[in-house]
Amino acid sequence: MTEETQAPTKVFISYSWDSDDHKGRVLALANTLRDPWGIETDIDQYVRAKHPFTPSQGWDLWMEEKIEWAEFVLIIFTETYQRRFRGDEAPGIGRGSTWEGAIIRQHLYNNQLVCTKFIPVVFSSQDLNCVPIIFNGHDKYILEDGKSLRDLCYRLRREPVVVMPEVATAKLQAPPEPKFFSPQKPKAEPPPVLLDITEIQDPTAAQKDKKPKVSQTASTDELASQRDMMNYAHLEALLKAGKWEEADQETDQQMCQVMGRRLAAGWLRVEDIEQFPCADLRAIDQLWVKHSNGKFGFSVQKKIWQQCGSPTTYNKQWEKFGEAVGWRSRGLMGMGAEWKSYSELTFDTSAPGGRFPGQVAGHCPGQGFQVGRGGEERVLYPVYVAGVEERFSSLARRCVNCSI
Questions:
Q1: For the whole prediction, is pTM greater than 0.70?
Q2: 306 forms bridges with which residues in the sheet?
Q3: Which of 351, 221, 362, 218 is CA-nearest to residue 288?
Q4: How many CB atoms lie within 10 A of CB 24?
Q5: CA angle 169–173–178, rounded 5-degree value
Q6: Phi, psi angles (nearest 5°) of residue 79
Q7: In 10 A of CB 157, how many CB atoms?
Q8: Which of 244, 253, 299, 333 is the most exposed place for a label (fewest CB within 10 A)?
Q9: Which value, to the nearest 10 degrees, does the dihedral of the CA atoms of residues 259, 265, 271, 272 take?
Q10: Which of the listed CATH numbers 3.40.50.11530, 3.10.310.20, 3.40.50.1970, 3.40.50.150 matches domain 10-156?
Q11: pLDDT tens profile 251-304
């Protein structure tokens, strides 16, 4: 199968500077669209992050050029942005978002509102009433959970959320002809008795030549198992050497390779996980369990996930699972618990059971977006999840269906 690398989608985010917290959420969204989702996203904060810290052509032309450059424009609606979008803001305040709003309205006017380029987005369902009436016929995205962000990213990447099978061209069998009388079935003849001449001549010959029979099913399973282990020879070498981080990354790459996603995207969708071959999943799990002495592996994670109530969405049970496998800190007396970034994990056997593999569920096993502050990496805004709990629950259910 030949894999093609698709060009990243170009996205611009239009928003208002309501507060530092709101600006931080927009920055976190832009960072996550770029990595891990592979969407080329631009915002004004990126301009202010490098010299000369302002566009040479001026902010007015920069905004106009970015809206023209983008294939999609995400409009983050709040009460403040709505006021400026409609031109109701006091003079001299919020000139940037007011200018962008005017350009966007002109595009909609020129296309008679028939335009899929502009996508309304809100960070809370309470802001839905801030979306102007001209967007009533458009899909709106409420980024309050991982599924909403996942659906938005799939649209931006122009990838289907579900897989639609082709219509089968099956030929129907002709109906049987009616029969008035049922024919009498002939009586079954007894099976013939076969005599072994050598056994009659030498009764001990049967015992000499008798060999254990091997079932065809067992032989086939053994061959399949040997084939799978050969495919994962490099993974086994890393696990034998105790290189857990490299083995975690190799596991993710091999699973993407199996589903033809290694070059196309580099990550697995929920539908990929739900259709992942049981033989490959079992082979990978057996290698992890064997070389970690039963501490790591999909089957270990599945058991812990079931003990935590089998969560499929972000809730207290999912946080409990994250704490159990060490993807989330426990905090002190229920306070200060945070999801860990991937670089904060401990890559040795002192890690909690079930911590690895971790990259298959998502770019970072924890929740939220990774944002650099002061040279350090930390996780902000756990409400915006890149579908980690949904992908992992699909993986755990796949283990159950494959009897792993």
A1: no
A2: none
A3: 351
A4: 16
A5: 160
A6: -60, -40
A7: 16
A8: 333
A9: 20
A10: 3.40.50.11530
A11: 888 888 888 876 555 678 888 889 999 999 999 999 999 999 999 999 999 999
